[in-house]
Amino acid sequence: MAAMRFRQAVVAALADEMRSDSRVIFFGEDVAEAEGPFKTSEGILEEFGPIRVRDTPISEMGFTGAAVGAAMMGLRPVIEIMFIEFLGVALDQVVTEAAKTRYLSQGSLSVPMTIRASVGSGLGFGCQHSQTLEHWFASTPGLKVVMPSNAQSAYSLLRAAIQDPDPVIVLEPRILYAERGEVDKNIVTHIGKAHLRVTGNDITIVALGQMVNVAEAAIKKSGTSADLVDLQTIIPWDREAVLNSVKKTGRLIVVEEAPLSGGWGSEIIAFVTSQLFSQLKSPPFRITTPDVPVPFNGGLEGRYAPTIEDVTRQILYALEKNDVPQPWWVLEGLTR
Amino acid sequence: MAAMRFRQAVVAALADEMRSDSRVIFFGEDVAEAEGPFKTSEGILEEFGPIRVRDTPISEMGFTGAAVGAAMMGLRPVIEIMFIEFLGVALDQVVTEAAKTRYLSQGSLSVPMTIRASVGSGLGFGCQHSQTLEHWFASTPGLKVVMPSNAQSAYSLLRAAIQDPDPVIVLEPRILYAERGEVDKNIVTHIGKAHLRVTGNDITIVALGQMVNVAEAAIKKSGTSADLVDLQTIIPWDREAVLNSVKKTGRLIVVEEAPLSGGWGSEIIAFVTSQLFSQLKSPPFRITTPDVPVPFNGGLEGRYAPTIEDVTRQILYALEKNDVPQPWWVLEGLTR
Amino acid sequence: MTTSLERRNSLYENDLACYERMVEIREFEKITNALFAEGSIRGTTHLAIGQEALTLGIASTLRAKDVVAATYRSHAIGLALGLSPESVLAEIMGKATGCCGGVGGSMHLCDTTVGLLPTSAIIGAGIPVAAGAALAFQVQKTDQVALALFGDGATNIGAFHEGLNLAAIWKLPVIFLCDNNVYGEYSRIDKTTPIEDLHIRAESYAMPHMSLDGMDIHAVRKGLAEAIERARSGGGPTLIEAKTYRFSGHSRADQGLYRPEGELEEWQKRDPLLVTEKDLISRNLITQEKIDSLKENMVAELTALAKKVADHPEPELSAMFSNIWT
Amino acid sequence: MTTSLERRNSLYENDLACYERMVEIREFEKITNALFAEGSIRGTTHLAIGQEALTLGIASTLRAKDVVAATYRSHAIGLALGLSPESVLAEIMGKATGCCGGVGGSMHLCDTTVGLLPTSAIIGAGIPVAAGAALAFQVQKTDQVALALFGDGATNIGAFHEGLNLAAIWKLPVIFLCDNNVYGEYSRIDKTTPIEDLHIRAESYAMPHMSLDGMDIHAVRKGLAEAIERARSGGGPTLIEAKTYRFSGHSRADQGLYRPEGELEEWQKRDPLLVTEKDLISRNLITQEKIDSLKENMVAELTALAKKVADHPEPELSAMFSNIWT
Ligand SMILES: Cc1ncc(C[n+]2csc(CCOP(=O)(O)OP(=O)(O)O)c2C)c(N)n1
Ligand SMILES: Cc1ncc(C[n+]2csc(CCOP(=O)(O)OP(=O)(O)O)c2C)c(N)n1
Ligand SMILES: [Mg+2]
Ligand SMILES: [Mg+2]
After folding, report:
1. What are the residues whose beta carbons fall under 8 Å from the beta carbon of D137, sequence distance 6 or more?
2. Degrees (nearest 5) of the Cα angle A237, A80, C190?
3. How does pLDDT run across B243-294, given as a tens digit for each residue?
4. Spatial CB neighbours of C324, under 8 Å, sequence gap ≥ 6
5. I want to staple A156 with a disulfide (CB 3.0 to 4.6 A). Which of A189, B215, B240, D101 is the partner?
6. D242 pairs with which residues across the strands?
């Protein structure tokens, strides 16, 4: 057990994997000499040297593709995409090349690469640097996507991702990099497995990334007895864990840092509804961001992702009324 | 009224818009002199000339970005992306530039561009040329996405897209290009409005693109009385039309040419469930493709997208058992 | 209150006004840096201290109806093109009075009255966009030109390659202006790029190219004028590499400690303000006293402005839901 | 049954075997075209008739443990590297016996025993992938090299620019081989590209480059050997432009009617088969009779093969669910 910041847990996981597996290499923009724009690779170049740890040109398509090729040849490349939006210039290599390699080579090749990318709102980086964009990787058999919610899962999930034989995308909530937490290096997390952060009986709340912490605070604040499922892996998500919890509680809310339209939570709601329709005590629903770009202004951005207050309000409404609450922007008459 | 092929309806819509609005220009790979790899621009260069109709280098990022810039300056560019997968090398310009322009310019600029792209499975183009990929454009406030299902909607939706002041992506099911249909040029379709292809009372079936035709055939085959909602616009989809139909039928099935995981149908199911929970007579569910890359072999590809037989089976099961049928790959023990 | 367009027009044929604007930018960036340090600005900032001659050379050579696609390093080009310090600072501080109503922030400035397209925070994105604006001018048969302003590091992104090739084959009226300030974030350009003279990449597109002294406004104007003339007369695009130096760190709190000993000092000898001051004094257009008082007043003005902007109204919640779709 | 590796090894130091393989490719492509026309092949096909000297030059110069990232124009390079006509035709016809089990199709061939990575149907995608394979060889300190084979049109995509720059700055053991067959789909290269000699684009990366006669296997071998030697000895990447010509249409039923009168005929005078036959005859390695009978037999063999493959088993439904995730 050790207390460390989320970003230090990322460094520790990468360092431990590089120590135990010489096939692991690491590259990205300013990750070597500068040790990462978010200081997520402190000491990595120093310990592992310039052959295994490299700075790249500003060429996401180029170095993401290079990671794909290196992985095909047996290395375990880890690359850093500074802000997830930058994959918008390199998506082809991830979804159309890496994800199809095992299939087209009939298993004779695999792409054990890990893509780390910072995601999310809350720090005033504006509408081109504050999204989570999990949906870019949806509907792509062959890919796996995980998102840690604290230092422990940052450590365990990154190690699992690097060890995984398939391409894995690790979406790191940027706003959590500075957060401190306890890390037990012996805790092994498996990709595809959710973590039950809080246990209770009356309602199941599913969340991901920074929303897990928001949901936990809201559960406390509302004084409800809830299961809080930290999904951890978004693709493929842990259907069994969610179904088991909802079988117990009969109620489901998904808390998302993703827009009302197109957010990943719909899949959770739709799947659970199809499977457990008759066991649902009240309509399952989502608490999401509004359908807007992430605004820069602090006051506005503070309302963008679901807040503790608003999640609390919606949990209480759902339990009292057995019905679906309105989103705040409808209540406040801002949009339909 | 005139009978024409789907691809001819595309040509007709483009030509009519270019005749009535000199701001409309058109470019893409081999769309001018060669009149389009799928012959979707026959006669366009000849009629409108090389200033307004251009062949581009193989540079999707370059010419998509050029369309964004030209649109900002008041033109109405229409571009062709031969296969939707090619936007994997240009997505940034669509989702991070075009979709954010109105917002960042506080409405002083807009991006009235239209992106036409061929999509879908069924023609043996393999796993990198057969997907629909609507999800790439999800969760992106500022974008609109439509998908025609026959010659009429190919004509009407393309005209509406070109006239729309926002960036619109028109996903054209490649397999329908050769299909003939009646086209009434006076029928005006509005983006965001669904079309009720079939009306009935017992169940609501929502579909898109080539699946609309599959669903229609299955409804006939099963002899059920169903509402068939051709969504036409996937972003933003017609919530009102779907809710009204389900209020009437109390049952909902979505038929998708998209994978079980990540497909757009989950949003329809989740939204309707949250809104009409108490009015649902049976669990709503999706009929999707399996979570696999699109296989090349004809026999396998023939099973990839939902078939008339399988949709018929699932409709009948749902109505008889008031429950959710298993997908065929589970019944046949191929995967979980 | 003077408009952006008036501020822009005041620069033409007026070296003194250009110099004053350079001083304005210099002091504005310093104050921005201080405000960020004290926590009054959230997110990030990208300063252009040391590059004032480049932005003023652009602003005083392009016409106001020409358009510019620039980057997150936006304050300097914004002020040069005519945006008021108030509208820029207000945007950086997220105020309703900002040029983007406070929803954009430091990386996203826009003012169509002086041709500033929304600045993009994605490397290279503005390059094809500028080519597209030029395509519109070609189709509309106007004599406008578009200019893409981007950095040295941006010459390694695919959009640079595709944008230049497309502009060359279509002979578009666009100028690609590479601001080679020696660094891309914390990486010296030679660490990421195997050639020193970036402008020779134009040879891949049979495109005219040149390199110029980005610390001297006259050199910038001269090279730019030539490229603009070519573009307007149907001669197509030009790639210009302006040799400059980023005196400040890359962004936020970066101190630029990775820079080799003495490199900054070497470049500071050619500080564009010094270069311009020498020139103006030699031409008896200004005196050292005037320079000193000018700077003093500018600091005072901007300091007062910062206090004033701090009290500007925040955007309404409704701003978050506006200008997304029609 | 001979393995891919045996078929590959038979080519080394054996000009006659290389010629026979060229004939095999020529006749294979013709039969593929006929099968497509009669509807026995679904989807699409991309023939490389007229470019046999290039693929054989590659196959007989690279070692089997080196790797190749190629494109949808895959039959010729696949057969050259050693894949059997049976495994290639079976893949094109979607049979379980195809090199990708029938799930790939004409655009996607793969055989790791001779270094053929899954061919990509996305323009330029293989370029950074080849650089990445070379990165692995550099890190693993093996003496393997990677080769990216792509077309003239691909030199206008961003991945080309980024891949070459990255390989140059890291001095990776990779060869970028541009097959300039004059056309990208239906567009002549001069319609989309402002320069004629594509290899000069390497100057943007201070990368050695050359152009060579892609119709002459000796010229291909010579240029390639030089680049491979440089790569193996730590000298980094090379851009090679092979001047060839696509005798057939781009794909499927394309007749290539957009080509200028007489252009094809001009190039056919330098048909790589003719060039090689002249060479072999002059060296008394073969006679015209042998050539004629060789071609006859090849046609007979491949015609029989086509009938045989038509009866090969289709993949099980389970193939569709295999090899996706571990
Ligand atoms: C596609 C993309 N990749 C990476 C970044 C992160 N980034 C922001 S600024 C910057 C450095 C750019 O350097 P340069 O082009 O020289 O411009 P300068 O900052 O020096 O003005 C980088 C890598 C980005 N914004 N977009
Ligand atoms: C990113 C992308 N854009 C467009 C295409 C469609 N396409 C397939 S082949 C081709 C022409 C490529 O020409 P070239 O690079 O010269 O190779 P060749 O076909 O002549 O061998 C095009 C445009 C594609 N596959 N990928
Ligand atoms: Mg720079
Ligand atoms: Mg070609």
Report:
1. A73, D143, D144, D145, D146, D173
2. 165
3. 999 999 999 999 999 999 999 999 999 999 999 999 999 999 999 999 999 9
4. A291, A292, A293, B102, B103, B141, B142
5. A189
6. D179, D212
Q: Which pLDDT does position D323 carry in this prediction?
A: 97
B267 given a catalytic annotation: no
**Cβ–ligand 1 contact at A34 (below 6 Å):** no
Instruction: Please say whether the beta carbons of D91 and D4 come within 8 A.
Output: no
Tell me how long chain B is.
336
b/e map of C11-35 (b: 16 or more CB within 10 Å)?
A: beeebbbbbbbbbbbbbbbebbbeb
Radius of gyration of chain C from its Cα atoms, rounded to whole angstroms: 19
> What residues form DSSP beta bridges with A233?
A146
Which residues in chain A have Cβ-Cβ distances shorter than 8 Å to D132? 65-73, 77
The CA distances from residue B245 to B200, B273, B281, B314, in Å, are 9, 13, 13, 19
**Catalytic residue at A129?**
yes
Cis peptide before B57 (omega within 30 of 0): no
Q: Is the pLDDT of residue D326 over 90?
A: no
- Answer whether C115's CB lies under 8 Å from C129's CB: no
Three-class SS state of A106: coil
Q: Is D126 in the pocket of ligand 2 (CB under 6 A)?
A: no
Q: Is the Cβ pair D125, A96 closer than 8 Å?
A: yes
Report the alpha-carbon distance of residue A13 to residue C277 in Å, rounded.
54
* Contact assignment for D205 to C192 by CB distance below 8 Å: no
d(CA D118, CA D126): 9
| Burial of A78 from C-beta contacts in 10 A (0-12 / 13-18 / 19+) | buried
Confidence at residue B195, expressed as pLDDT on a 0 to 100 scale: 98
Taking CA atoms, B123 is separated from B119, B133, B256, in Å, by 11, 17, 17
Burial tier of D63 (Cβ tally within 10 Å: 0-12, 13-18, 19+): middle
Is the beta carbon of D237 within 6 A of some atom in ligand 2?
no
| Rounded Cα–Cα distance for residues A222 and A224 (Å) | 5
- Cβ count near A175 (within 10 Å): 20
ipTM tops the 0.95 cut: yes
Coil, strand, or helix at residue B48?
A: helix
Q: Do B89 and D191 touch (CB under 8 A)?
A: no
Assigned token pair, B186: 């006076």
Percentage, residues of chain D above pLDDT 70: 100
Token pair listed for D256: 């290539």
How far apart are the CA of A298 and the centre of ligand 3, in A? 29
